[in-house]
């Protein structure tokens, strides 16, 4: 991906990224962090600034959360129906 250290620090300061750290303070990037970095890179290439990217990432996370909540609610009637049929 080739993201420089200064950019990584900037993304962290702007709240776009929050990697885990070792006891010595070294950043440890998870697969989720790498996905976020790829998304940031894509959005930068489309011309968004970091404030816009923060908004996009926040809205995407909210959308996923709402979709998961809706999926759980839609699954409840199926579970109740299966229980009453038994």
Would you kindly provide a brief summary of this structure?
The protein has helices spanning 5-13, 31-45, 50-85; strands at 20-21, 27-28. With 86 residues, the chain is mainly alpha-helical.
Structural write-up:
The structure is a single chain. The chain has one domain (5-85): Multidrug-efflux Transporter Regulator, Chain: A, Domain 2 (Orthogonal Bundle), CATH 1.10.1660. The termini are far apart. It has a two-stranded antiparallel sheet with strand order 1-2. It contains three helices and two strands; from the N terminus they run αββαα. The chain is elongated and about 60 Å long. By secondary structure, the chain is mostly helical. 70% of the residues lie in helices and 5% in strands. This is DNA-binding transcriptional MerR regulator. Residues 1-59 form the HTH merR-type domain. Residues 10-27, 68-77 have a biased composition (Basic and acidic residues). Residues 1-27, 67-86 are annotated as: Disordered.
CATH class call: Mainly Alpha
How do the helices and strands follow one another from N- to C-terminus? Answer: HEEHH
Distance between the termini: 53 Å
How many structural domains are formed by the residues?
A: 1
Overall 3D form: elongated
User: Poorly predicted ranges (pLDDT <50, ≥5 residues)?
Assistant: none
As a whole number of angstroms, the C-alpha radius of gyration is: 19 Å
The percent of residues in helical segments reads 55-70%
Order of neighbouring strands in the sheet with most strands: 1-2
Number of strands: 2
The proportion of strand residues reads under 5%
Largest sheet: 2 strands, antiparallel
Kindly state the mean pLDDT as a whole number?
A: 90
Which structural class do you get from the secondary structure elements? mainly alpha
Report the CATH architecture.
Answer: Orthogonal Bundle
Q: Briefly note the CATH topology name.
A: Multidrug-efflux Transporter Regulator, Chain: A, Domain 2
Please give the count of helices: 3
């Amino acid at each position: 991906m080739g993201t420089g250290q200064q950019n990584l620090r900037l993304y962290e300061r702007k709240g776009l990224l929050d990697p885990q750290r070792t006891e010595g303070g070294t950043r440890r990037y998870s697969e989720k962090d790498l996905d976020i970095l790829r998304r940031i890179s894509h959005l930068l290439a489309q011309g968004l600034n970091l404030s816009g990217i923060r908004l996009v990432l926040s809205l995407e996370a909210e959308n996923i959360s709402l979709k998961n909540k809706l999926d759980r609610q839609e699954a409840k009637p199926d579970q109740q129906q299966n229980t009453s049929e038994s």
